[in-house]
Request: fold
Amino acid sequence: MSNQIKPPFTRESALAKVQRGEDLWNSKDPAHVALAYTPDCTWRNRNEFFQGREAIEAFLQRKWQRELDYRLYKELFSFAGNRIAVHFRYEYRDDSGQWYRAFGNEHWVFDEDGLMSSRDASINEVAIRADQREIALDGAQPREQEKPTGEGAYANDTGLK
Reply:
């Protein structure tokens, strides 16, 4: 990938890396997303463990085939050297029309070229009604209105209003 943001990270470069990751995942293009990872990148996603770009691409193809109208937001939690931790949330619906909101944390490790060499994700989700959705599919809402704000915003927003 061109114009890689490389470690060691500053606050500004870590924020930019998180935004780039959010934008990339929201493209829902598995082949393009997989290029952000090293050829031997290790992943843990919930209870799945796998390694390599081919496995990442296959996982993302399966994910976005079943998670329809997927929209993701990431928020920088911490960073140091070649590591970044993020909080995230996303919403999607399944093929029956049931909506879900997922919350989680990711720990990222990058190589010297700025490619992710390790991704460890813990994710929980809750079923929501369509009228409880908070994330605009087309990005029409200003980001400040869509993203949680303040300390603990992710932890306190379950969608069970």
Summary: The longest strand covers residues 68-80. The beta strands are 37-45, 48-51, 68-80, 83-93, 99-110, 116-128. The two ends are 41 Å apart (CA to CA). Confidence is low (pLDDT under 50) at residues 141-161.
